[in-house]
Amino acid sequence: MSELTAPVPTTERQASLWSDAFRTMRRRPDVIIASLVLLLVFTMAAFPGLFTDKSPTACAGRDARLRPDTWFTGEHPLGTDAFGCDFAATLVHGTRPTIVLALTVIVASVAVGLVLGIYAGYYGGWLDTLISRSLDVFIVIPMLMGAILILSLFRGRVSADNLFDTIAAPALALALFGWMEFCRYTRAATLETKNLDYVVAAKCLGASDRRIMFKHILPNAIVPVTAVVPTTIGGIIVTEAALAVLGIGVQPPATSWGVLLSDGTEWAGGGYVYLFAWPLGLLILTVFAFATFGDALRDALDPKLR
Amino acid sequence: MGRYVIRRLLQALLTLGIVLFLLHYLMALSVQVRGNPALLFFGGDRTPDPAMLAQVERLYGLDNPCYERTGDPCLAPFVDRLQNFVRGDLGTTLNGNRDVAELLSIYIPNTLRLFAFSVITLVAVSMVLGTWAARHRGRFIDHTVRGTTILADSIPVFLILLTYVYIVAVPLTRWARDIWGTESFMGQVFRPSYNPDYPWTTIIVPGIIVGTVGLATMTRLIRAAQLENLGSDFVRTAKAKGLKPLRITVVHVIRNSMIPIITGIGFLFAFMLSGAVLTEGVMGIPGMGRMIFQAVQRQEGNLVIVGLTVSAFVVVVVSLVVDLLYAALDPRIRYE
Amino acid sequence: MAETMRVIGDTLPGVDRNAPLLEVDSLRVEFQVRGERIPAVRGASFTLEQGRTLAIVGESGSGKSVTSQAIMGILDTPPGHITGGRVLLHGVDILEQDEETRRTVRGNHIAIVFQDALSALNPLWSVGFQIGELFRVHRGASRREAKRRAIELLDLVGIPDAKNRIGHYPHQFSGGMRQRVMIAMALALEPEVLIADEPTTALDVTVQAQIMRLLKRIQAERHMGLILITHDLGVVADVADDVAVMYAGEVVERADIYDTFKRPAHPYTKALLRAIPRVDAVGGELEVIRGLPPNPAALPSGCPFHPRCFAAEDVCADEVPPWIEPAEGHGSRCHFAEEVYTDER
């Protein structure tokens, strides 16, 4: 009798829910394809060297705007951009800021949403009122609008020396207006779970509040949250691109898909469609993969809706 | 019910008040951190005569010393701003010195017209697709509808717009004009930009494009609602009562499916507002979205705040209306 | 009575007054699940006479609810399909009628009360609307007329203050009252056959008795045929005249109530009866039927009950038992029906 534990249901039930979900997902061809796409993109972000041996910053003015006439071969497989930089290298190296930005925002949003949601749902009272009110306030400003507001009010010249400086401002702005959905789901799940028999039992056995919240309630609350995570990551990537087109996202000379798109629009009309089409295709493919994956995940975790 | 409405109204007012204060505080912080936007009045870099600068600062309410102290919430100017808002004075633009309230009276109706087409598109398309998918659950059509709507949702609105404006619109317009003539409805409807001479015709296409925001979410909601209702016990009861399929659909399924549809619209409205910012900006529709778009590009803090206040106001009102509609549609919801 | 017969003649041509009220003859229902055909009802036969109560007894999954839905014509198709058999109402096979006629039969001649009234009633319409809807649709009644009839019906099923309750919504009623609303709705068009599909399972014990008394009273008043679907043998003993026991989609024993309880002719029935707790049997251990109900997709060979049967022999696993009648009007689908009947097994 080292420690008081609640009756079994939580862990076991959760485990079967997740493994069931995993088994359902594994059998769907669309999920497999989406996973492969995501794997490719993540690899590109983590090890750009595997895909290109050029540096995106080694540019030669005389090589500017070389069309990729010889597909996937030659000196510049995807041609060069307006400054004579190798476009394949630019594209591959632009993946990392995009992905890191999206992941940073989602991790921050989920963490904030989970903690606030659990505390609001579990303790109720003034804490719940305070958190629910701020939820109301933040939710009336959609993510893109909020990010526009923050970034346009505090726009400054950011040196793009390292990854952190490149993405810090947009990541902060997006996370600030991204946590509400997760908080709402968590709060609802907490309210639902906290009166379940096994949670009450754990309480009677003298488990601490913190233990109940993170051992017994969190595993339940995390289900609806996880179900919307992939779709939201897709949304963040899109929003980042929109911010870049507005000129307030990641600031050039740093690159991200959004920056490349926004540059690409200027050249697309002049016959350099590839400068627009490649980042566009990559972005849509990735977001589509995230959305498909998220859709399947939601189905697998919520059998009611199938 | 009456008490509930009043409570919700007060809550909405409180929310709006906090939103306003936060917006104000953010702007004050921005002035404190980044320096005086009144300098813009003089074209940016030049150092203006201090006396003239002071005059302009006074004009835009930036003369309070709190703007020099970083972190000061600037309560006095906030109260001034609220008083001005109540009086209907929303300030003037830094560029061109125009009355913001007057601009709003032109911009808001345009955005509303845009939204009318968007909501119609969203509801109509997702109703058809959702019902269709529900009828063929688990089969090819179901998967196709799901895949297509997710794809449509994955393509950012502004990309659809850019593609439309730069690639599709011009040849389509030329083709339509060859057949129906320049002045006809068809000759105008595909124009790549808004034309105030044809205020209704040229807003249809951007409206439809904004309406694709959230298509997947909405289709999914409707599909789920239909499946739930079609397989429900009360529909079985209705069949056992010997009712015709049409009556079952109209009386017992549609009304029950309305609730998720309303939730969906309430939820997606905020996203459509974001969609409108880019759409109006790209298509040149003089609406709220373009105002915010331009305010961001010209760094007009006041205009951004006014735009976001209006947008926040709309979102609050929409969520209030959604809650009241729930009560009207579902007798189980009783507000105390 | 004469009046109801006339209505039947109008809507169902070929009615034979001398034929039994409802006769179900080797009804078969299959479910199509992922390309597989799974039998849910495998040749159910029974007869219901006017003014009598037939109890269909069985475990969950034995096909009793599917049978009732097939009779009503409200099977979810797909996946459910009626693949054979006849359902005769006064000698007319209603399975052969066109959809229009079948709709008239529903509600007018056969009505059903479901188990869970909360989900069986549409939550968004008042009970008055949902009851009145029958008069509006089937009888072309005016709004006011429909409302008047609905109030009468609520009175009939014993809902106090019917005039005011008529505008209330299902969630505003208690469980028992909600089931009364459900019954009122089923009775609205004065059907000849009322199917009650586990009408009291979701209710408190005291309320159960009230609902059963109500059903019995109205059945007697109207001389209706009542099919009571249940797994509760206590209720059966109280109200039924005849009993049909279902197992694995078929009727395994059919007899009147006294014979069923006194001298069951099928081991399954016998085991069911032994599993009822008795006040007079103090101290003894309650018997249970070993094993689980069979999976309809993979039924045991021969007699589907043989793996769980206390009287099983080798023949039971090999041959499908014939229908044996050890006494007049008492049949059983068991190789050893005679021995079980005479209590030799």
Question: Can you put this structure into words, describing what you see?
Answer:
The complex is a heterotrimer of chains A (306), B (336) and C (345). Chain A has 306 residues and is mainly alpha-helical. Chain A has helices at residues 9-26, 29-46, 87-123, 125-139, 143-153, 163-176, 180-193, 197-204, 209-246, 257-268, 274-301. In chain A, 48% of the residues are buried. Mean pLDDT of chain A is 77; it is low at 1-10. Chain B has 336 residues and is mainly alpha-helical. Chain B folds into 2 domains: 2-87, no CATH class; 100-299, MetI-like (MetI-like fold), CATH 1.10.3720.10. Chain B is 73% helix and 0% strand. Chain C has 345 residues and is α/β, with parallel strands linked by helices. The termini of chain C are far apart. In chain C, helix 5 (127-139) packs across helix 6 (143-156) and helix 8 (175-187) packs parallel to helix 9. Chain C is globular. In chain C, the strands form 2 sheets. Chain C has an 8-stranded mixed β-sheet with strand order 6-7-8-3-9-10-12-11, sandwiched between helices. Chain C has helices spanning 2-11, 64-72, 99-108, 117-120, 127-139, 143-156, 162-165, 175-187, 205-222, 233-239, 257-262, 267-274, 314-318, 337-341, and strands spanning 22-33, 36-48, 53-57, 80-89, 92-93, 110-113, 193-197, 225-230, 242-247, 250-256, 323-327, 330-333. At the A-B interface, helix 4, helix 5, helix 9, helix 10 and helix 11 of A face helix 1, helix 5, helix 6, helix 9 and helix 11 of B.
Our measurement of the CA-to-CA distance between the termini of chain A, rounded to an integer number of angstroms, reads 43 Å
Poorly predicted regions of chain A? 1-10
DSSP helical segment count of chain A:
11
Tell me the domain tally of chain B.
2
Largest sheet of chain B: none
Query: Which radius of gyration of chain A do the C-alpha atoms yield?
Result: 23 Å
Are there runs of chain B of 5+ residues with pLDDT below 50, and where?
A: none
Q: So what's the CATH class of the largest domain in chain B?
A: Mainly Alpha
Number of strands of chain B: 0
- What is the CATH superfamily label of the largest domain in chain B? MetI-like
CATH topology of the largest domain in chain B: MetI-like fold
> Which structural class is indicated by helix and strand composition of chain B?
mainly alpha
Shape of chain B: globular
Number of strands of chain A: 0
Give average pLDDT of chain B, whole number.
80
Task: Supply the helix-strand structural class of chain A.
Answer: mainly alpha
What amount of the residues of chain B lies in strands? Answer: under 5%
What percentage of residues of chain B falls in helices of 4 or more residues? over 70%
Oligomer: heterotrimer
What CATH architecture of the largest domain in chain B would you give?
Orthogonal Bundle
C-alpha Rg of chain B, in Å? Answer: 25 Å
